[in-house]
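User: tokens in, sequence out, please.
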């Protein structure tokens, strides 16, 4: 069982220490002239990462592998008077081919988040957020023989929404606190009885506390670090078991089109597995901005 006063507390302290230092550094910068605030900022990015290894008569041994990962990130930021509307789509799919074992999934994600805010003070907003999260294809546990199906398209699928308060320093630094968040979990008949859904049913409703934060900064020239953290506690079912999702993306820019990308992704969801889930992705690939627009 995962408790809030252990790893989560340490993660929070580290995360908010970084934010505090970054915010303090930004405040010390002297602004020569206040730039006009754009009404719309849109940025769509396509990334393709490729990895390959091949062996022939290699004394140390080895297994031929080919892996590819495609991801699309789409950001929409809108500002007008006291209104602020931020939407972000994070989606990706990856496969690897292992000689003698066939294809294995390495990434499968659809995550859409929309956050509407009405300014109440300099950095604070009354907010309302909506989040949709699922995957595209069936997932398997290959540690068992034969492999066992553990998830599928829209199984599970999560729909979360609720009012709250948003602290927003910039488009690259914000924290949303939603103490009355409703979450709907959907599964098909095959997975009824799993992911917190009762046996014989295809959906479950929960009410809880949701915290979501986003922080992106340039660590150094041509090196960008992006942090995405989500925490959820269900008031109605074991509130001490905190659901945690944290993703760190480190991007090294080689030139305009080529970047080296490292992703560290961890999830703790007591209803899904009761253990920490880890995913790490590293590769050199093509990065292309297919839609980039700023309007005033």
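Assistant: Sequence out:
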């Amino acid at each position: 069982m995962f408790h809030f006063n252990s790893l989560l507390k340490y993660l929070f302290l580290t995360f908010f220490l970084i934010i505090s230092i970054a915010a303090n550094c930004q405040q010390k910068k002297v602004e020569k002239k206040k730039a006009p605030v754009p009404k719309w900022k849109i940025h769509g990015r396509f990334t393709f990462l490729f990895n390959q290894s091949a062996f022939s008569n290699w004394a140390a041994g080895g297994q031929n592998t080919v892996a590819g990962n495609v991801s699309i990130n789409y950001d929409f930021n809108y500002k007008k008077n006291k209104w602020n509307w931020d939407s972000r789509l994070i989606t990706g799919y990856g496969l690897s081919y292992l000689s003698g074992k066939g294809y294995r999934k390495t990434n499968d994600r659809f995550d859409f988040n929309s956050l509407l805010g009405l300014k109440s003070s300099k950095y604070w907003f009354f907010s309302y957020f909506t989040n949709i999260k699922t995957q595209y294809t069936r997932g398997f546990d290959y540690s068992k023989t034969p492999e066992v199906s553990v998830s599928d398209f829209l199984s599970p699928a999560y729909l979360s929404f609720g009012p709250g308060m948003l602290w927003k320093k910039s488009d690259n630094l914000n924290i949303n606190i939603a103490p009355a968040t409703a979450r709907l979990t959907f599964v098909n008949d095959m997975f009824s009885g799993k992911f917190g859904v009762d046996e014989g049913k295809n959906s479950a409703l929960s009410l809880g506390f949701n915290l979501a934060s986003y922080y992106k900064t340039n660590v150094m020239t041509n090196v960008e670090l992006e942090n995405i953290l989500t925490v959820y506690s269900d008031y109605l079912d074991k509130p001490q078991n905190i659901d945690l999702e944290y993703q760190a993306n480190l991007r090294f820019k080689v030139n305009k089109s080529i970047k080296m990308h490292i992703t560290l992704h961890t999830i703790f969801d007591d209803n899904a597995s009761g253990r920490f889930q880890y995913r790490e992705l590293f590769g050199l690939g093509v990065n292309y901005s297919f839609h980039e627009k700023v309007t005033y």
